[in-house]
């Protein structure tokens, strides 16, 4: 059959109809995306910022750097407290010196966030973590609600915005490569637990574990749920800034044991007064063992499950301070020139006013560096990791597996 000029074949008609239908589908898809917020090629994710790469810490005092003013514990109240007070200095030519916490915590010495120069994220970079410059957004005393964005019910603290709102602003100008989170302890009212245990020792009451264990059993699931919300909000925060899950690493870390078991207490068999005046670790033997063998491991187990449920990897720090806990056997109070192998890595209970009580039972200068070494090692491992210390070995004895 001879086709007249300008007359379309049936195949050409079908192709034309298909093209019209295709264009209509594209228009409908775009309209739907605009109305319902569905991403399309026309509404692609924003490009990642071209700024400098950063590694970020979020959470509470165990990662903000609280306690890092102290390089060990000392009974000496004069001058630099046996070489342990890193904030002390004496101007050249002056007879007396003074201690200025701002030398360690900067402006946050006054606000109370206590972000120190040797906070874990800073120490991790100093010890080999090479993903980017460190940014510490953590704050002493933070609960899960202080990390959540305000739009998700989060609340600021100490004059600052919620930490994830600060992360959102950072993520738009710098390339976030790693986020490490430490949170949950304050949601369990851990400071209150410590106070009750100290009171039990002071008043010669029954060990605090008798009443505190049931409370922890009830509160741990709620703590895990709160931490899970924070992890989800971190991902949502970075997604809103154009990041996909593979663009960064998210690590949830646990807490190191602050106390040894009673069998590893260097004051075992001493009079009670030694724990008050010497060690400043006023805890009964049953409570020390309970903290080391039940409290810290159970919190770690809850956090590990939470990390797995919410797309984060887990860093177990439970045994990171092995042999260097407060009043651990083999440690001593230095008289000058402290070294990590010989001293405690936890600030003693400072009820005598040598420093700030808020620093009590927190990782000190060496403890913060230890956590940083653990974090640097964990960042080189694809999955979960655990960090453990070695008695008498100092920072070189840390092992990440």
From TrEMBL:
Entry-linked Pfam families: Lipase_GDSL_2
Residue ranges of every copy of the SGNH hydrolase-type esterase domain listed in the record: 108-369
Q: Which residues form the signal peptide?
A: none
Provide the protein name.
SGNH family lipase
Q: Which organism is it from?
A: Kineosporia mesophila
């Amino acid at each position: 059959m001879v086709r007249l000029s300008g007359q379309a074949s049936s195949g050409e008609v079908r192709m034309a109809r298909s093209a019209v239908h295709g264009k209509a589908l594209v228009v409908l898809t775009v309209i739907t995306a605009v109305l319902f917020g569905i991403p399309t090629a026309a509404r692609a994710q924003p490009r990642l910022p071209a700024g400098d790469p950063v590694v970020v810490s979020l959470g509470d005092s165990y990662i903000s750097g609280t306690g890092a003013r102290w390089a060990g514990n000392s009974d000496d109240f004069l001058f630099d407290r046996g070489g342990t007070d890193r904030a002390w200095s004496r101007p050249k030519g002056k007879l007396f010196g003074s201690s200025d916490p701002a030398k360690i915590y900067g402006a946050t010495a006054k606000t109370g966030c206590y972000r120190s120069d040797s906070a874990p994220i800073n120490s991790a970079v100093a010890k080999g973590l090479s993903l980017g410059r460190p940014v510490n957004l953590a704050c002493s005393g933070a609960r899960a609600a202080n990390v959540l964005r305000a739009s998700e019910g989060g609340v600021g603290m100490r004059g600052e915005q919620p930490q994830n709102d600060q992360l959102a602003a950072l993520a738009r100008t710098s390339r976030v490569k790693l986020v490490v989170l430490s949170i949950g302890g304050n949601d369990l009212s851990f400071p209150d637990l410590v106070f009750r245990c100290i009171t039990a020792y002071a008043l010669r009451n029954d060990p605090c574990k008798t009443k505190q264990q049931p409370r922890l059993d009830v509160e741990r699931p709620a703590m895990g749920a709160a931490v899970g919300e924070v992890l989800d909000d971190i991902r949502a925060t970075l997604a809103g800034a154009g990041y996909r899950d593979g663009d960064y690493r998210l690590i949830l870390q646990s807490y190191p044991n602050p106390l040894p078991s009673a069998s590893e207490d260097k004051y075992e068999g001493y009079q009670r007064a030694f724990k008050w005046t010497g060690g400043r670790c006023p805890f009964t033997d049953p409570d020390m063992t309970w903290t080391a063998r039940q409290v810290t491991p159970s919190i770690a187990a809850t956090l590990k499950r939470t990390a797995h449920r919410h797309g984060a990897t887990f860093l177990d720090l439970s045994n990171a301070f092995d042999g260097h806990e407060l009043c651990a056997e083999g440690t001593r109070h230095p008289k000058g020139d402290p070294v990590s192998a010989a001293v405690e890595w936890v600030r003693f209970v400072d009820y005598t006013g040598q420093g700030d009580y808020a620093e009590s039972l927190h990782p000190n200068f060496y403890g913060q560096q230890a956590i940083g070494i653990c974090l640097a090692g964990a960042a080189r491992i694809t999955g979960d990791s655990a960090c453990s210390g070695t008695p008498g070995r100092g920072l070189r004895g840390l092992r990440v597996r």
